[in-house]
Amino acid sequence: MLVMKFGGTSVANFEAITRTIFIIGGKLDKKPVVVVSALSKVTDLLYRISDAAASRNEAETRELLAQLRKRHTDLAGELLAQSVLKDEAVAKVNEICDNLDSIAMAVCSLGELSDRNKAIIISNGEYLSSTIIAYAMNSKGIRTKWVDARSMMVTNNSYMKAEPDMTAIMERVPGVIADAYDGMDAVITQGFIGVTKDGEPTVLGRGGSDYSASLIGMAVDAERIEIWTDVDGVRTADPRKVQNTRYLEKISFEEAAEMAHFGAKVLHPLTIEPAVRKSIPIYVLNSMNPSGKGTAILRNEFIEDGVKSVSFKENIRVINIFSTRMINTSGFLRRVFEIFSESKVSVDLISTSEANISVTVDAAERIEPVVEQLSEFADVIVDDDKSQVSVIGKNIVRLNGMLKKTFTPLKKCNVYMISQGASFVNISFVVDREELSEVVQDLHDHLFDQVEELETF
Ligand code: ASP
Ligand code: MG
Q1: Span 245-260, pLDDT tens digits
Q2: CB within 6 Å of ligand 1 — which residues?
């Protein structure tokens, strides 16, 4: 079996979906399980609908709902223009939109939006896209079964950012997919969408469709997981920020996980983990250039040592925690990290000295409650306007001269925290945000021109 996930831009409109169906049609011998995102920008629109409804702005809620309905009914009409299935497909789209309208209007009249209802609203993007694409595939002669992700993708009840229940997923998914395959050429389901053990709707968090694909791949023991997107694969750095980046033909699971975690916007950061469990290769491919090689994400032994990526997070903060009472009190660190974890603020880099701990957090995290609690027993200074840069590659921490090569181009700027990952894959540090562009460009030029000269110890 093969899992093929298509992101929002690969299903954005008539042309994109036509191309996507053509790609799927070429792989029917591999028994594809197709996982789709919402059409591009639709999840954002659903967030706006839920905000408008929660703030009881009835006119805006109605206007946005109408936009959403029009985009999907038009698309279904266009894709199925020549098909006997057209009326049925448009009716189905309208039925999904009717249900959404009534939930949104109920929220609007109450002015109250629970996370549970929000997850129901937000998940409609994937229901709509998968429904339309299933009809379009069938109309083109690919016998396709539509599967509701809520029949198999079991999660906990953090409705808006649910965590998968691996055991339950492993138990349920193979049976559901096998049954769906009966007499069919392909199966299609939604990314991003989950369900609690009690049948309550959840979603996996923004960008979660990649994660869904990888979880399904793991559960059905897929031979590979394909993540179809709008770029030719994974690059050495974000080309919107850095010039002269290159494509990477292959990277390791570990490198990919670090890149995703440390800012590269290619894959949802948790995507790698389920694939690693079963050693299933992941391919990042371009639906606008399907004959390209893409990037293969493989087991470590297939990957050479050396730098693969300069990744970065543009907006972070450094929280410096000082306490003279910290010395020799083993409970101090525990207490500090308990506070972060209770407030669900996730920490990236950590560095400690005898009387000080510094950590970095994403600037979007709500840190006020953390700072308040820490201030009860420590002095806390928060540095804003910082960026975090990570150099990532197999064994780089062990490569001779690597630290020197990383820091030579940075002579002119302040470097605040330096951390070498215990896994040898990552050297990270913090700089002032206003220096970020220059730092990543210099670093990329320097590392990718000279990388051949590095030797292993
Ligand atoms: N549609 C969801 C989002 O935009 C999930 C995804 O596309 O991966 O976040
Ligand atoms: Mg995505």
Answers
A1: 999 999 999 999 999 9
A2: 7-8, 37-38, 43, 125, 191-192, 206-209
Domain that holds residue 121: 2-230
What residues flank ion ligand 2 with Cβ within 5 A? 7, 207
What is d(CA 28, CA 158) in angstroms, rounded to the nearest whole number?
A: 36
- Report which protein residue has its CA nearest ligand 1's atom 6: 207
CA distance 219 to 196: 17
Residues in Cβ contact with 241 at an 8 Å cutoff, skipping those fewer than 6 apart: 312, 436, 437, 440, 441
Q: Which ligand is nearest to the CA of 35?
A: 1
For the entire predicted model, the pTM comes to 0.92
* Number of CB atoms found within 10 A of residue 304's CB: 10
Whether residue 315 sits in one domain with residue 226: no
In a shared domain, residues 315 and 222: no
CATH number for the domain harbouring residue 166: 3.40.1160.10
Residues 20 and 156 in one domain: yes
Q: What is the pLDDT of residues 392-449, one digit of tens each?
A: 999 998 887 888 888 888 878 889 988 887 778 999 999 999 999 999 999 999 999 7
Does residue 243 form part of some domain? no
Return the CATH number at 398: 3.30.2130.10
3-state helix, strand, coil in the chain (%, to 5): 45, 25, 30
* 121/20 same-domain check: yes
Tokens 């897929």 belong to 222
% residues pLDDT > 70 (the chain): 97
Residue 267 domain flag: no
pLDDT for 48-101, tens place per residue? 999 999 999 999 999 999 999 999 999 999 999 999 999 999 999 999 999 999
How many structural domains are present in the chain? 2
Strand partners, 225: 3, 282
| Contact criterion met (CB below 8 Å) for 433 and 383 | no
Q: Whose CA is nearest to atom 9 of ligand 1?
A: 206
Contact call for residues 16 and 10 (beta carbons, < 8 A): yes
